[in-house]
Design goal:
297 residues, alpha+beta, elongated, 13% strand, Beta Polymerase, domain 2, 6-stranded mixed beta sheet, Four Helix Bundle (Hemerythrin (Met), subunit A), 10 helices
């Protein structure tokens, strides 16, 4: 596996030799001072160019970076499917190289790049042949920090979480496991992760990033809280899925109450109790039940 120095020398060396490439900058985890550094980190590189057409028309120009195991060209795929693209301004190659390194390389026009650099605080300029790229402060993940929710955002997150329990409950009762798992992971889990992110943000005065898919949440949750989060992931066994649902409910409820107290927002505990009651009654239903009885309701 080529070292970071070898890869960076190659990346900058290619740009130095190609007159079409006027600048280079890097973003992503390698410029993030708060991201852990390991062998799986991508090289997220942008080549600033005058035009993209000659690069797109000469696909083998990327062979200079080494043998590839496989790759993806998202813009090419979008065009193949008839989707609108902006290939005149940017075009991306995602390359898994045979030596173990991954290079995510984008060719981007100067005008587009200047806007990108201003928006993404993780950009680090590596080469500027013409001295035209905007000066950027030291890389920071500030643009990825958790944003404080409004009272309305908090309310909607809670309502969506508790409302969708209805669907996961009936899916598990019917043994429609693919449906139930999709409801859990595509609709309910995002609300849980959002609430946990707000909790982490509240504890740090909203100066933290929890990373993609909440991968850094373990930094901000207690050991028990993080174990509960892990307990919300289940396999295909129905009883395990039911257990995960109730762990998810308890974790969300406890966290939402803390966030509500910390931010001075109202929390609809009645909604939570009603949703959990419906879940509990659904779990206890016989497989041939003819009606649903919700306690004294």
């Amino acid at each position: 596996m080529r070292s970071e120095k070898e890869m960076m020398d190659l990346i900058i060396g290619v740009a130095m030799k190609d007159e079409r490439i006027r600048g280079v900058y890097m973003n992503g985890s390698r410029t993030n001072p708060n991201a852990p550094h390991d062998i799986f980190q991508d090289y997220d590189i942008v080549y600033v160019v005058g035009e993209t057409a000659s690069f797109i028309g000469e696909e083998d120009w990327i062979d200079v970076f080494g043998k590839r195991l496989y790759m993806q060209q998202p813009d090419k795929m979008d065009a193949m499917r008839g989707m609108e693209t902006d290939r005149e301004r940017h075009y991306t190659y995602l390359m898994q190289l045979a030596d173990g390194n991954r290079l995510d390389l984008t060719v981007m026009t100067q005008e587009y790049a200047e806007g990108n650099i201003k928006e993404d605080r993780l950009c680090k300029v590596l080469l500027d042949k013409d001295g035209v790229l905007a000066e950027v402060p030291a890389p920071s993940d500030e643009s990825h920090w958790v944003k404080k929710p409004s009272a309305a955002e908090f309310l909607c997150c809670c309502n969506e979480f508790w409302w969708m329990q209805n669907s996961v409950g009936k899916g598990l009762w019917r043994r429609e496991m693919t449906y139930a798992m999709d409801i859990m992971n595509l609709y309910i889990r995002p609300q849980l992760m959002k609430m946990l992110s707000w909790y982490a943000g509240m504890k740090t005065d909203f100066t933290c990033s929890v990373g993609k898919s909440g991968k850094y949440l373990n930094r901000y949750l207690s050991g028990d809280e993080y174990e509960s989060l892990l307990g919300t992931y289940s396999g295909s066994d129905r009883e395990c899925a039911w257990k995960a649902v109730f762990v998810m409910c308890s974790l969300f409820d406890g966290t939402a109450r803390k966030v509500a107290d910390g931010l001075g927002y109202a929390y609809d505990s009645g909604e939570a109790e009603g949703s959990r009651l419906f879940l509990e009654c659904t779990r206890g239903l016989a497989e041939d039940a003819a009606d649903i009885r919700l306690g004294e309701a």
